[in-house]
Amino acid sequence: MKLERFLSGLTKLKRGSTPYGLAPHKPILLLTLLDLLERGYIHDNRFFIDDILVSTFHENWDLLAADGFVEDFTLPFYHLQNDKIDSAAFWFLQTIPGFQITKHIRSIQTLSEVVEYACFSDAIFQMLTHKENRDAMRRVLVNTYFPASAMHYFRADREQGKYLKEVQQYVLNEVPKVMRLQVAEEEMVYVRNLTFKKMVPKVYQSTCAISGMKVSSINGKSLIDACHIVPFSNTQDDRVTNGIALCPNLHRAFDTELVSINQDFRVLVSQQVVEEVSHPYGLAILRGKKIILPEEKHLWPSQENLDWHRNEKNKYKNAVFQSV
Protein backbone atom coordinates (compact mmCIF):
# COMPACT_ATOMS: atom_id res chain seq x y z
CA MET A 1 0.00 0.00 0.00
CA LYS A 2 1.27 3.47 -0.86
CA LEU A 3 1.56 6.10 1.84
CA GLU A 4 -0.98 8.37 0.15
CA ARG A 5 -3.65 5.66 0.21
CA PHE A 6 -2.97 4.89 3.83
CA LEU A 7 -3.12 8.56 4.84
CA SER A 8 -6.36 8.99 2.94
CA GLY A 9 -7.82 5.96 4.70
CA LEU A 10 -6.89 7.40 8.10
CA THR A 11 -9.26 10.32 7.47
CA LYS A 12 -12.20 7.88 7.37
CA LEU A 13 -11.89 6.02 10.68
CA LYS A 14 -15.12 4.56 12.04
CA ARG A 15 -16.08 6.52 15.14
CA GLY A 16 -19.02 6.15 17.49
CA SER A 17 -21.57 8.91 17.93
CA THR A 18 -21.89 10.57 21.35
CA PRO A 19 -23.81 13.60 22.66
CA TYR A 20 -20.49 15.50 22.38
CA GLY A 21 -19.68 14.52 18.81
CA LEU A 22 -17.85 11.64 17.16
CA ALA A 23 -15.59 9.70 19.53
CA PRO A 24 -11.89 10.69 19.50
CA HIS A 25 -10.53 7.40 20.84
CA LYS A 26 -9.13 5.80 17.66
CA PRO A 27 -7.10 8.78 16.37
CA ILE A 28 -5.74 9.32 19.90
CA LEU A 29 -4.63 5.69 20.06
CA LEU A 30 -2.90 5.96 16.68
CA LEU A 31 -1.10 9.13 17.79
CA THR A 32 -0.04 7.26 20.92
CA LEU A 33 1.42 4.41 18.86
CA LEU A 34 3.35 6.96 16.80
CA ASP A 35 4.78 8.44 20.01
CA LEU A 36 6.05 5.04 21.14
CA LEU A 37 7.70 4.48 17.77
CA GLU A 38 9.18 7.99 17.81
CA ARG A 39 10.70 7.51 21.25
CA GLY A 40 12.32 4.22 20.26
CA TYR A 41 10.27 2.27 22.77
CA ILE A 42 8.94 -0.10 20.08
CA HIS A 43 11.62 -2.21 18.42
CA ASP A 44 9.42 -4.63 16.49
CA ASN A 45 5.80 -4.85 15.39
CA ARG A 46 4.38 -5.63 18.82
CA PHE A 47 2.51 -3.20 21.07
CA PHE A 48 2.03 -4.58 24.57
CA ILE A 49 -0.59 -3.30 27.01
CA ASP A 50 1.77 -1.83 29.57
CA ASP A 51 2.21 1.26 31.72
CA ILE A 52 4.02 3.19 28.99
CA LEU A 53 1.35 2.60 26.34
CA VAL A 54 -1.58 3.37 28.65
CA SER A 55 0.00 6.45 30.27
CA THR A 56 0.96 7.87 26.84
CA PHE A 57 -2.65 7.39 25.70
CA HIS A 58 -3.73 9.30 28.81
CA GLU A 59 -1.36 12.19 28.02
CA ASN A 60 -2.64 12.48 24.45
CA TRP A 61 -6.20 12.30 25.69
CA ASP A 62 -5.58 15.27 27.96
CA LEU A 63 -4.10 17.20 25.03
CA LEU A 64 -6.80 16.45 22.47
CA ALA A 65 -10.10 15.14 23.82
CA ALA A 66 -12.82 17.74 24.37
CA ASP A 67 -14.77 17.94 27.61
CA GLY A 68 -17.57 15.42 27.95
CA PHE A 69 -15.90 12.44 26.28
CA VAL A 70 -15.10 9.50 28.56
CA GLU A 71 -11.53 8.28 28.39
CA ASP A 72 -11.28 4.55 27.70
CA PHE A 73 -8.13 2.92 26.32
CA THR A 74 -9.80 -0.46 25.78
CA LEU A 75 -12.31 0.86 23.23
CA PRO A 76 -9.95 1.81 20.38
CA PHE A 77 -7.46 -0.92 21.22
CA TYR A 78 -10.16 -3.48 20.41
CA HIS A 79 -12.31 -1.73 17.81
CA LEU A 80 -9.49 -0.41 15.59
CA GLN A 81 -9.16 -3.93 14.17
CA ASN A 82 -12.54 -3.37 12.47
CA ASP A 83 -11.26 -0.45 10.40
CA LYS A 84 -10.07 -1.14 6.86
CA ILE A 85 -8.16 0.75 4.19
CA ASP A 86 -8.63 -0.48 0.62
CA SER A 87 -10.74 -3.31 2.08
CA ALA A 88 -7.82 -4.55 4.22
CA ALA A 89 -7.51 -4.45 8.00
CA PHE A 90 -4.33 -2.86 9.36
CA TRP A 91 -4.58 -3.46 13.14
CA PHE A 92 -4.59 -6.92 14.71
CA LEU A 93 -4.81 -8.42 18.20
CA GLN A 94 -2.71 -11.46 19.08
CA THR A 95 -4.26 -13.35 21.98
CA ILE A 96 -2.39 -15.39 24.54
CA PRO A 97 -2.46 -19.11 23.61
CA GLY A 98 -5.67 -20.68 24.87
CA PHE A 99 -7.66 -17.43 24.82
CA GLN A 100 -10.01 -15.87 22.30
CA ILE A 101 -11.39 -12.34 22.07
CA THR A 102 -14.69 -11.91 20.23
CA LYS A 103 -16.03 -8.73 21.81
CA HIS A 104 -14.88 -5.56 23.51
CA ILE A 105 -13.46 -6.20 27.00
CA ARG A 106 -14.01 -3.14 29.17
CA SER A 107 -11.60 -4.08 31.95
CA ILE A 108 -8.01 -3.20 31.06
CA GLN A 109 -6.73 -5.79 33.52
CA THR A 110 -8.80 -8.53 31.87
CA LEU A 111 -7.84 -7.30 28.40
CA SER A 112 -4.14 -7.54 29.29
CA GLU A 113 -4.66 -11.10 30.51
CA VAL A 114 -6.23 -12.14 27.19
CA VAL A 115 -4.23 -10.17 24.61
CA GLU A 116 -0.50 -10.82 24.30
CA TYR A 117 0.10 -7.86 22.01
CA ALA A 118 -1.34 -5.89 19.08
CA CYS A 119 0.35 -5.12 15.77
CA PHE A 120 0.01 -3.30 12.47
CA SER A 121 0.04 -5.18 9.20
CA ASP A 122 3.62 -5.83 8.14
CA ALA A 123 3.42 -3.34 5.26
CA ILE A 124 2.08 -0.54 7.45
CA PHE A 125 4.62 -1.17 10.19
CA GLN A 126 7.44 -1.08 7.66
CA MET A 127 6.05 2.21 6.39
CA LEU A 128 6.04 3.65 9.92
CA THR A 129 9.68 2.80 10.57
CA HIS A 130 10.49 5.96 8.59
CA LYS A 131 10.23 9.23 10.49
CA GLU A 132 8.90 11.25 7.54
CA ASN A 133 5.99 8.80 7.22
CA ARG A 134 5.21 9.02 10.93
CA ASP A 135 5.27 12.81 10.72
CA ALA A 136 2.88 12.76 7.77
CA MET A 137 0.53 10.37 9.60
CA ARG A 138 0.58 12.56 12.70
CA ARG A 139 -0.27 15.69 10.72
CA VAL A 140 -3.17 13.97 8.98
CA LEU A 141 -4.63 12.61 12.23
CA VAL A 142 -4.39 15.89 14.14
CA ASN A 143 -5.60 18.13 11.32
CA THR A 144 -8.48 15.79 10.46
CA TYR A 145 -9.82 15.02 13.92
CA PHE A 146 -8.51 17.79 16.18
CA PRO A 147 -8.06 20.93 14.04
CA ALA A 148 -8.95 23.26 16.91
CA SER A 149 -6.23 21.71 19.09
CA ALA A 150 -3.54 21.32 16.42
CA MET A 151 -1.44 24.31 17.44
CA HIS A 152 -1.61 23.36 21.13
CA TYR A 153 -0.74 19.73 20.36
CA PHE A 154 2.31 20.44 18.21
CA ARG A 155 3.66 22.98 20.69
CA ALA A 156 3.20 20.69 23.72
CA ASP A 157 6.11 18.90 25.36
CA ARG A 158 5.36 15.26 24.55
CA GLU A 159 8.78 13.84 25.30
CA GLN A 160 9.22 10.69 27.40
CA GLY A 161 5.94 10.62 29.23
CA LYS A 162 5.23 13.41 31.70
CA TYR A 163 2.37 11.52 33.33
CA LEU A 164 4.39 8.34 33.80
CA LYS A 165 7.16 10.37 35.45
CA GLU A 166 4.60 11.77 37.87
CA VAL A 167 3.40 8.25 38.66
CA GLN A 168 6.99 7.11 39.25
CA GLN A 169 7.60 10.05 41.60
CA TYR A 170 4.48 9.11 43.54
CA VAL A 171 5.44 5.42 43.74
CA LEU A 172 8.97 6.34 44.85
CA ASN A 173 7.50 8.45 47.67
CA GLU A 174 9.02 11.65 46.24
CA VAL A 175 5.83 13.71 46.41
CA PRO A 176 4.18 14.47 49.76
CA LYS A 177 0.54 14.34 48.68
CA VAL A 178 -1.48 11.28 47.77
CA MET A 179 -1.88 11.02 44.02
CA ARG A 180 -5.55 11.18 43.21
CA LEU A 181 -7.04 8.73 40.77
CA GLN A 182 -8.14 10.64 37.70
CA VAL A 183 -10.56 9.88 34.88
CA ALA A 184 -10.54 6.31 33.62
CA GLU A 185 -9.80 5.23 37.18
CA GLU A 186 -9.13 1.57 36.42
CA GLU A 187 -6.60 2.51 33.75
CA MET A 188 -4.71 4.79 36.12
CA VAL A 189 -4.71 2.08 38.80
CA TYR A 190 -3.32 -0.27 36.16
CA VAL A 191 -0.46 2.15 35.39
CA ARG A 192 0.33 2.64 39.07
CA ASN A 193 0.29 -1.08 39.82
CA LEU A 194 2.66 -1.86 36.95
CA THR A 195 4.96 0.97 38.07
CA PHE A 196 4.89 -0.39 41.64
CA LYS A 197 5.84 -3.86 40.35
CA LYS A 198 8.82 -2.38 38.51
CA MET A 199 10.03 0.10 41.13
CA VAL A 200 9.92 -2.04 44.27
CA PRO A 201 12.39 -4.68 42.98
CA LYS A 202 14.50 -1.87 41.52
CA VAL A 203 15.00 -0.03 44.83
CA TYR A 204 15.91 -3.38 46.43
CA GLN A 205 18.40 -4.01 43.60
CA SER A 206 16.39 -7.06 42.47
CA THR A 207 17.18 -8.78 45.77
CA CYS A 208 14.77 -10.54 48.13
CA ALA A 209 14.73 -8.42 51.29
CA ILE A 210 14.48 -11.47 53.56
CA SER A 211 16.51 -14.26 51.93
CA GLY A 212 19.00 -12.11 50.00
CA MET A 213 18.34 -14.16 46.87
CA LYS A 214 19.10 -12.35 43.62
CA VAL A 215 18.27 -14.28 40.47
CA SER A 216 17.67 -12.86 37.00
CA SER A 217 18.14 -13.94 33.41
CA ILE A 218 19.80 -12.41 30.38
CA ASN A 219 16.37 -11.52 28.95
CA GLY A 220 15.60 -9.37 32.00
CA LYS A 221 13.32 -11.79 33.86
CA SER A 222 13.61 -11.83 37.63
CA LEU A 223 12.41 -14.07 40.47
CA ILE A 224 11.82 -11.09 42.76
CA ASP A 225 8.25 -9.89 43.34
CA ALA A 226 6.88 -6.56 44.50
CA CYS A 227 4.80 -7.43 47.56
CA HIS A 228 2.24 -5.04 49.08
CA ILE A 229 2.45 -4.82 52.87
CA VAL A 230 -1.09 -3.49 53.29
CA PRO A 231 -3.23 -4.86 50.43
CA PHE A 232 -3.93 -2.35 47.68
CA SER A 233 -7.66 -2.99 48.09
CA ASN A 234 -7.47 -1.55 51.62
CA THR A 235 -5.73 1.76 50.99
CA GLN A 236 -5.00 2.11 47.24
CA ASP A 237 -1.41 2.75 48.37
CA ASP A 238 1.07 1.92 45.62
CA ARG A 239 4.10 3.67 47.09
CA VAL A 240 7.30 1.73 47.70
CA THR A 241 6.88 2.40 51.43
CA ASN A 242 3.92 0.01 51.22
CA GLY A 243 6.02 -2.57 49.44
CA ILE A 244 8.85 -5.00 49.94
CA ALA A 245 10.81 -7.09 47.43
CA LEU A 246 10.44 -10.83 48.08
CA CYS A 247 11.11 -14.07 46.25
CA PRO A 248 7.89 -15.97 45.37
CA ASN A 249 7.89 -18.41 48.31
CA LEU A 250 8.46 -15.65 50.86
CA HIS A 251 5.93 -13.43 49.10
CA ARG A 252 3.35 -16.13 49.70
CA ALA A 253 4.53 -16.66 53.27
CA PHE A 254 4.19 -12.92 53.91
CA ASP A 255 0.71 -12.77 52.36
CA THR A 256 -0.48 -15.80 54.35
CA GLU A 257 0.79 -14.50 57.71
CA LEU A 258 3.56 -17.06 58.11
CA VAL A 259 6.22 -14.35 58.30
CA SER A 260 6.20 -10.67 59.15
CA ILE A 261 8.70 -7.92 60.08
CA ASN A 262 9.11 -6.15 63.40
CA GLN A 263 9.83 -2.50 64.20
CA ASP A 264 13.58 -3.18 64.00
CA PHE A 265 13.20 -4.65 60.52
CA ARG A 266 13.86 -8.19 61.72
CA VAL A 267 12.01 -11.24 60.49
CA LEU A 268 9.17 -12.66 62.56
CA VAL A 269 8.03 -16.24 61.99
CA SER A 270 4.61 -17.45 63.05
CA GLN A 271 4.40 -20.08 65.77
CA GLN A 272 1.88 -21.85 63.56
CA VAL A 273 4.58 -22.84 61.05
CA VAL A 274 5.15 -26.59 60.89
CA GLU A 275 8.21 -27.60 58.88
CA GLU A 276 11.35 -29.67 58.74
CA VAL A 277 13.58 -27.30 60.72
CA SER A 278 16.81 -28.67 59.27
CA HIS A 279 15.78 -27.87 55.70
CA PRO A 280 18.03 -25.15 54.22
CA TYR A 281 15.04 -23.30 52.72
CA GLY A 282 12.86 -23.40 55.82
CA LEU A 283 11.36 -20.38 57.55
CA ALA A 284 12.66 -21.02 61.04
CA ILE A 285 16.26 -20.22 60.11
CA LEU A 286 15.13 -16.74 59.01
CA ARG A 287 13.73 -15.82 62.43
CA GLY A 288 15.39 -12.67 63.77
CA LYS A 289 17.29 -11.94 60.58
CA LYS A 290 17.66 -8.25 59.66
CA ILE A 291 16.06 -7.61 56.31
CA ILE A 292 17.84 -5.88 53.43
CA LEU A 293 16.66 -2.29 53.04
CA PRO A 294 16.89 0.21 50.17
CA GLU A 295 19.83 2.61 50.34
CA GLU A 296 17.63 5.70 50.79
CA LYS A 297 15.61 5.85 53.99
CA HIS A 298 12.52 7.44 52.40
CA LEU A 299 12.14 4.19 50.43
CA TRP A 300 12.12 1.94 53.50
CA PRO A 301 8.91 0.09 54.43
CA SER A 302 6.60 2.27 56.49
CA GLN A 303 6.50 1.33 60.18
CA GLU A 304 2.77 2.05 60.14
CA ASN A 305 2.25 -0.45 57.33
CA LEU A 306 4.41 -3.09 59.02
CA ASP A 307 2.48 -2.58 62.26
CA TRP A 308 -0.75 -3.20 60.33
CA HIS A 309 0.68 -6.41 58.88
CA ARG A 310 1.73 -7.69 62.31
CA ASN A 311 -1.55 -6.81 64.00
CA GLU A 312 -4.61 -6.03 61.87
CA LYS A 313 -3.96 -8.67 59.20
CA ASN A 314 -3.58 -11.32 61.88
CA LYS A 315 -6.32 -10.14 64.23
CA TYR A 316 -8.55 -13.08 63.35
CA LYS A 317 -5.83 -15.53 62.38
CA ASN A 318 -4.23 -16.07 65.79
CA ALA A 319 -0.82 -16.02 64.11
CA VAL A 320 1.54 -15.27 66.99
CA PHE A 321 4.98 -14.26 65.74
CA GLN A 322 8.37 -14.97 67.25
CA SER A 323 11.52 -13.02 66.42
CA VAL A 324 14.11 -15.09 68.27
What does this structure look like?
The strands form five sheets. Strands 9-10-11 form a three-stranded antiparallel β-sheet. The protein has a two-stranded antiparallel ribbon with strand order 1-2. α1 (3-10) runs parallel beside α7, α3 (51-64) crosses α10 (185-203) and α9 (162-171) crosses α10 (185-203). β1 (17-18) and β2 (21-22) form a beta hairpin. It folds into two domains: 3-160, no CATH class; 167-322, no CATH class. The chain is built from 13 helices and eleven strands. By secondary structure, it is of the alpha+beta class. 32% of the residues are buried.
How is this structure best summarized?
The protein has 324 residues and is an alpha+beta fold.
Helix and strand run: HEEHHHEEEHEHHHHHEHEHEEHE
* Order of strands in the sheet with most strands: 9-10-11
- What number of domains? 2
Structural class: alpha+beta
Which word captures the global form? elongated
Gyration radius, to the nearest Å?
A: 24 Å
How far apart, in Å, are the first and last alpha carbons? 71 Å
Largest sheet descriptor: 3 strands, antiparallel
Task: Report the average pLDDT across residues.
Answer: 89
* Relative strand content: 5-15%
Count of runs of 4 or more consecutive helical residues = 13
Helix content: 25-40%
Q: How many strand segments?
A: 11
Instruction: List low-pLDDT spans.
Output: none
